[in-house]
Amino acid sequence: MSQDLVAVVEQPRAQAAIGSLRAEGVYDDSRSTVEADDGTVAVPVTEPPTGTDVLEVARQAGQARVRTLEDHLRERGWDDEAIERAPGSWAVVGSVVLVDSGDRSAETREVGEALLAMHGGADTVLAREGTDDGHPEPSVEVVAGEGDTGTVHREHGTEYALDLSEVSFSPANEAERARMGEVVGDGECVLDTVAGVGEFTLPMAQAGARVTAVERSPAAFQYLLENAMRNGVTDRVEPYRGGCRDVVPALDGGFDRVVMGSGETHRCLGVALAAIGSGGLLHTHEVAPGGLVPDRPVGRLQEAAERAGRSVEVLDVRDLRGDGDGSRHVVVDARVR
């Protein structure tokens, strides 16, 4: 492990880069980020990143300053027992830090203040209950900072405007969002059955795909429209306000690719399979108990295909992350005929 290696990124995307580097497992949270006069930020890493876009990887001179959450909490008088209850992970979305809420509100507030001290670009810390990235209204509470839950999150050249008290957004899906922008083909006809604020719709449209985006949440749908304009892809995004089972059967079908977010997958597999053209690709997201992975997501897809008179070839099963309750977020890639 290098003690002085840094990844240099543009200041506006520093927080998104930190999230990506953390997901790669190369972010060194024992050292400080350092802002330079030229508008860049040196982010400490343990080794050169392979999945995060950076300007350069360099050596950082000078003594590194310890800045772990544990150090900040010890400065506030926390003992070993209290530190054991502190969160082991959190996420930065634009100017907001998301952290899973604990049982003790006073401790949660102190954690929030420590996180603000660690992340200079953030101004609000939200405690959230659970990590569901489906459609249920998010359950969040302001525990530190200014309390502004609206923000603009930037990653891999895409901007997402959103209010985290109104809509769900999964920071942990950053690599999958970037991947969808890479695998989609220019001119592809794509259906996104649970578009949200445009998590997958936007990078696919930026890559040249024509995306039919279906979203039933009024708040998320308004941000979907705003984000399509913000990213200059309104000519490649056809938005529909409504649920998957109501909207998709009325569409022409024959899609080259269908993306199904975890909020609707097991309920909408039948209509999605009917909408995809022969040889098309299907990406299903599902949150399942760890003991049922990959059998349940794959089994549900195969059973739905049999009922629809289709055949599926499973190409890949990716385990994106685990939640504190032992569940796993899984993506199944399949070809449908």
Q: What topology does this entry show?
A:
Elements: E1 5-10, H1 14-24, E2 34-35, E3 40-44, E4 56-59, H2 69-75, H3 80-84, E5 91-93, E6 96-100, H4 105-118, E7 124-128, E8 140-145, E9 150-155, E10 158-163, H5 174-183, E11 189-192, H6 201-206, E12 210-215, H7 218-230, E13 237-241, H8 244-247, E14 255-260, H9 265-275, E15 276-289, H10 295-307, E16 312-322, E17 327-336
Parallel strand pairs: 6-7, 11-12, 11-14, 12-13, 14-15
Antiparallel strand pairs: 1-3, 1-4, 2-3, 5-6, 7-8, 9-10, 15-17, 16-17
Helix pairs in contact: 9-10
Summarize the structure.
This protein is α/β, with parallel strands linked by helices. 28% of the residues lie in helices and 31% in strands.
Describe the protein in words.
- With 337 residues, this protein is of the alpha/beta class.
- It has helices spanning 14-24, 69-75, 80-84, 105-118, 174-183, 201-206, 218-230, 244-247, 265-275, 295-307, and strands at residues 5-10, 34-35, 40-44, 56-59, 91-93, 96-100, 124-128, 140-145, 150-155, 158-163, 189-192, 210-215, 237-241, 255-260, 276-289, 312-322, 327-336.
- A seven-stranded mixed β-sheet has the order 13-12-11-14-15-17-16, with helices on both faces. A four-stranded antiparallel β-sheet has the order 2-3-1-4. Strands 5-6-7-8 form a four-stranded mixed β-sheet.
- The model has no long low-confidence stretch (mean pLDDT 87).
